[in-house]
Structures are given as structure tokens and as C-alpha cells.
Amino acid sequence: MPAVREAAGKTKVADIDWPTWRAVDRATLTFVLQGTRVLLIRKKRGLGAGKVNGPGGRLEPGEEAIDCAVREVEEELGITPLGLEYRGENLFQFVDGYSIHVYAFTASRYRGELRETEEATPLWTDLDSIPYDEMWEDDRLWLPHSLGGLTPQGRYIFDGDRMLDWELEVDGKLYVLRALAEADGPLSARELWSRLSGTGVGLATVYRALQRGVEEGMLESVELLGGGARYEPKDREHHHYFLCSTCDHAFDLYGCVDGLESLVPDGFRLTGHEVVLLGTCDACGDAA
Ligand SMILES: [Zn+2]
Ligand SMILES: [Zn+2]
User: Fold this and answer.
1) pTM score, two decimals?
2) Cβ contact 273:239 at 8 Å
3) CB 79 within 8 A of CB 113
4) Residue 240 CA: which ligand is closest?
5) What is the pLDDT of residues 27-52, one digit of tens each?
6) Where in the chain does DSSP place strands (E)?
7) Which ligand is nearest the CA of 276, by number?
8) Tens digits of per-residue pLDDT, 254-263?
9) How far is the CA of 239 from the centre of ligand 2 (A)?
10) 57, 95, 214, 271: which has the highest count of C-beta atoms within 10 A?
11) How far away, in angstroms, is 187 Cα from ligand 2 center?
């Protein structure tokens, strides 16, 4: 395997030709979710023994990743994970030449009785207190995205269990669509970005996701009184806006104005209207 020999000793992600790179091993990690908890393990043997991780292991010859994911959880914890979803993949090159390609999954439920085995001790963990200090160094980079329903794609260089370099691509579109669906009005890219703080999604990713959302017909860009582009889901029913002159946030107003046709001179044809009300919002009014 020439790619394996070529990648040995490399210490930078950029030094490796990833399209031709092939891992020595392929493996899975599976995270069973239950409410606000995730099922982790303390690994008792094998690669990463002693560390906290998700249950998982190497693919057998000819095995599909998703079948491996189910089998490994069964072997390590005695339960069968159900409702599996693909949550991205991570490529690891070790300087000694070893390499592994890991597929991540989440499971929404499971069947059977959870138990400790010779391989693993189960650890139900709150999603906001995942012990990253006791885990592989890369986990804190990508796992929050996988648990948030995204499919991060990572590349890492390790020397033993020390991470030397990494590169991670995260598709922020899901975060962006979710935040816009929950918003009380159209959001600018910067407003969106600040609402996504803590997710690791950067401003450039937000811009890219917005552009793609518009191109794919899921989002609409609105400009209110020359205030720059704001974005909203395209499937919203007919509505107008209240623009706060203090915080510059635009709020959706549902309902419409009667009698606009009577304002239109003879011979003119009305084809649409936009209404923007100006003032201060509840929060800004209180602060004044
Ligand atoms: Zn305001
Ligand atoms: Zn209207």
C-alpha cells in the first residue's frame, strides 16, 4: 500500500494527498442518544484503552459501516442500537504509518439490557458535560457537530495520542436553517452568527450556507429600507415587518393592511406591497 508508506512521518494535514490516501483500518463510533444524555464508554482494551469514547471498532472484511456500528455496540454493551444516522467521518494518520478511517453514527434508541463487558464500561453522560479531557484530542472538535445532527468531515495527524495537526469541514446549513425557522424575524448573517455562538460555526460558513439556501430555494433574502440582506425561510405566509431603530432587529408581523387599493390612482395596477413599521421593540423600549 504505497499511500500508507508515503503518509508515514508526515506531520501536517496539508502534506498528505487525501484523495489517494487509504486507511490501514476502517472503523465506526456510535453515540446512542436518550433525551439530553449520550451513552459513552470507558474503553478497557485496544486502541485508546483507558479513554472515554463512543462504542465502536474495526470493520470486518466486506462489512458495511452501519452493520459494523450495530455489531460493535452489541459486543461492547450488550444492546442493539436503533434509528442509526450517519454523522460524518474522520481520517487519522499516525506518524508511525498507521492510519484509520472512522465513520460516526448516532442512534435514537436501543433494544436490550445495557451491561459492562470486558471491552467497555458504559457511561451515560449529560450532553453538556462530555468529559473531553479524558477523550481523544480530536473529539472536542467534531463530536459536538455530530451530536448536533451534522456530518463533520475531519482529517488529523497524530503522534501516539498527541494531535499534531487537523482540518475540519462542517456543513453549517442545518444550523442556519434551524435558527432561521425558530427566529421571530428575518436575520442578517451577523445576527445568525451570534445566535450560533457555541456551535463552532464560523461567519464564513454562515455566509456560504445562506447563499446555498437561497440558490436551493429554501431561503429568501429580504432588504428592509436599504438595511442590507436579511434571510428568512421561503415558505413563510404573507407577512410584514416591524423594524426596531435601536437594536436594528426586524420582527415578523402577521396580518395585513386593508384598503391599499383605494390609494392607487386610476390607471395604475397594484401588483404587491411591502410594509415596514418603525419604532422600538419591547426589549429596547424597556431599556430606554
Ligand atoms: Zn430593539
Ligand atoms: Zn400585506
Assistant:
1) 0.69
2) no
3) yes
4) 2
5) 999 999 999 999 999 999 888 899 99
6) 25-34, 37-43, 52-53, 56-58, 80-94, 99-111, 120-126, 153-159, 162-169, 219-223, 229-233, 239-244, 250-254, 276-279
7) 2
8) 989 888 889 9
9) 6
10) 57
11) 20
